[in-house]
Design a protein that fits this description.
Layout (H helix, E strand, L loop, with lengths): L3 E4 L4 H12 L5 E4 L10 H6 L8 E4 L2 E4 L1 H11 L11 H13 L4 H19 L5 H23 L12 H15 L9 H14 L1 H12 L11 H15 L1
Parallel strand pairs: 1-2
Antiparallel strand pairs: 1-3, 3-4
Helix pairs in contact: 1-3, 1-7, 1-9, 5-6, 5-7, 5-10
């Protein structure tokens, strides 16, 4: 039975899993789960794939796994991918682990808020957020990026040293969220812009663009295309996240 990956490529952790599997020639069945259509809450998905109702999710024969970091580490170990992705050197691996442990409440939180504030909330409310809320979200992200540069990137080509790792992959997909909403965080940060270019080269620009195609089209989303019950649920969730 083939490895199955349940993904929606608008989701940043889904993109990380997708890119990693494709880059490392890991064969898998791509099971598309449309979050905006509520497919992650369908009874079959909850029962057979992930009771938490989230993606990414993975099934490897009768073994099911959720949470993007756990999936990435499982794939790296099972398929014995190149050492630079999750280094065997103790201290280099610890740098990767440190970033992966921090990013949930660091980059993930602040980059997602800007994406929601600029790309999705206007769709669901029918009008943009008040300027002060947009400014607050942008300020929080800017502070996070300053920390990212000073602590995690420093003067290294990549987060863990001289080669791209899982830390860089997880970071870049998160940082593309505000970019997709028209908030180009790389314009005023040449160090980060150079890092982004190196990560894209390491992944492969064609694969990188393929994985981000759906995200970059998210700004064209119309709430009228969503089922009414899903529209209300998403609206409630998004407003809680940004407040």
């Amino acid at each position: 039975m083939a490895l199955e990956l349940y993904l929606d490529l608008v989701s940043q952790p889904c993109r990380a899993v997708y890119i990693f599997a494709k880059k490392n020639n890991i064969a898998f069945d791509f099971k598309r789960v449309e979050l905006m259509q509520g497919q992650h809450k369908a009874e079959k998905f909850l029962k057979e794939v992930n009771p938490a109702g989230k993606v990414p999710a993975m099934k490897d024969a009768d073994f099911a796994l959720s949470e993007s970091i756990a999936i990435l580490l499982y794939l790296a170990r099972k398929f014995k991918t190149a050492d630079h992705w999750y280094p065997s050197d103790l201290q280099t691996r610890a740098r990767v682990d440190e970033y992966l442990a921090w990013q949930h409440t660091g980059v993930r939180m602040t980059a997602s808020k800007v994406f929601l504030a600029k790309a999705l909330i206007p769709v669901f409310l029918g009008h943009p957020l008040p300027p002060e809320k947009l400014e607050a979200a942008a300020k929080d992200l800017d502070e996070t990026l300053a920390l990212f540069e000073a602590k995690f990137l420093q003067d290294r080509p990549f987060i863990a040293g001289r080669q791209a790792s899982l830390a860089d992959l997880v970071a870049i997909v998160e940082l593309m969220q505000p970019v997709a909403a028209g908030h180009n965080i790389f314009e005023s940060r040449p160090k980060m812009a150079a890092w982004r270019s190196r990560v894209e080269d390491a992944v492969g620009k064609e694969l990188f663009q393929e994985a981000h195609k759906a995200l970059l089209s998210a700004k064209d989303l119309s709430a009228d295309l969503l089922p009414p019950e899903m529209k209300e649920k998403l609206k409630e969730t998004i407003l809680k996240y940004i407040n």
